[in-house]
Design goal:
By secondary structure, this protein is of the alpha/beta class. The protein is built from 15 helices and six strands. Strands 3-2-4-1-5-6 form a six-stranded parallel sheet, with helices on both faces. The radius of gyration is 19 Å and the shape is globular.
């Protein structure tokens, strides 16, 4: 990964726009590290880069997987690794862009060999409540329970599953990350009031653009795609359980909370220098990152 540059950060910071501009200037290609933009469909709901951004540089791992297919960090790493090798074989530089922390860490640190998902066990765990899952994890892996996001159902299910299948604490196996691989990248963020305003506005724009009809037309989604932020809320709207205003407010709140968790993750899990776009602006960030020495790794020497 010494020839890969990472642009990471919370949702709605403007990562995609900055990365597209930088890639265009440096004739680089972009590999997405987003757990939901990888799916075909739900373009509005997952806030995929618009056509203007996509036209500036070649993008990979966006809309590349059917909604019905289950994805996980192991599958992502294998696919991304093959994609990066292909780009390098064509003598192009790679910019990895995204906000899915585990996907990014899978590329920067490698992966422990964890047991594959067990369908019957997974079905049983999916029927448990969030509180039941957290209690199970606390009993199986007390250290892991203290670190995990207890509001992230997908991660709770996977952590309990790994504990039961391997008969080892999930947290102990995650210590097998290789923390010594050299990486080069940047964490971009914005002041909280500005970021939250951007999130609120983006959700409103999704609804104006027709995200409700997009979800209405989506018939089948696999267990991973089902976790797409906002999907459950819009289905509740379609079922007449909540109003449009309530739906928008719920998605805005959930997205703000998600952005906060993302920032905390990247601050703890990476050593990338941070750049505040509220103070420096996107143009300044693009100029800085467009310097060839940044992608070559000189910036961290």
């Amino acid at each position: 990964m010494t020839r890969v540059f990472f642009i990471v950060g919370p949702t709605a910071t403007g990562k995609s726009e900055v990365a597209a501009e930088v890639a265009q200037k440096l004739d680089a290609e972009i590999v997405s590290a987003d757990a939901f933009q990888i799916y075909r469909g739900l373009d509005l709901l997952t806030a995929k880069p618009d056509q203007a951004a996509l036209a500036k540089a070649r993008h990979h791992l966006i809309s590349s997987v059917p909604l019905t297919e289950e994805m996980n960090v192991e599958k992502y790493r294998a696919t991304a690794d093959a994609t990066i090798r292909d780009i390098h074989s064509r003598k192009k530089q790679v910019i990895v862009v995204g906000g899915s922390g585990l996907y990014v860490k899978a590329l920067t640190h490698g992966l422990a060999k964890l047991p594959e998902a067990d369908r019957k066990l997974r079905e049983t765990l999916e029927q448990a409540t969030m509180e039941e899952l957290f209690r199970s994890l606390s009993a199986l892996d007390p250290a892991g329970a203290k670190q995990i996001d207890r509001h992230n159902r997908r991660r709770l299910v996977r952590a309990v599953e790994v504990c039961l299948l391997s008969r080892k604490p999930f947290s102990a196996q995650r210590t097998e990350w290789n923390a010594s691989l050299p990486t080069n990248g940047i964490l971009i963020y914005r002041d909280r009031p500005e970021l939250y305003a951007r999130i609120n506005r983006r959700v409103e724009q999704m609804f104006e653009a027709g995200v409700v009809e997009e979800v209405r037309a989506t018939k089948n989604a696999g267990p991973t795609a089902e976790k797409t932020l906002g999907l459950a809320e819009i289905r509740a709207l379609l079922a007449g359980e909540i109003s449009r205003a309530e739906c928008i407010a719920k998605i805005q709140q959930a997205t703000r909370r998600y952005a906060k968790r993302q920032l905390t993750w990247f601050q703890r899990q990476t050593n990338f220098p941070a750049l505040n776009l509220s103070k420096h602006g996107s143009s300044e960030a693009i100029d800085l990152l467009s310097q060839p020495r940044m992608l070559s790794g000189v910036a961290h020497e």
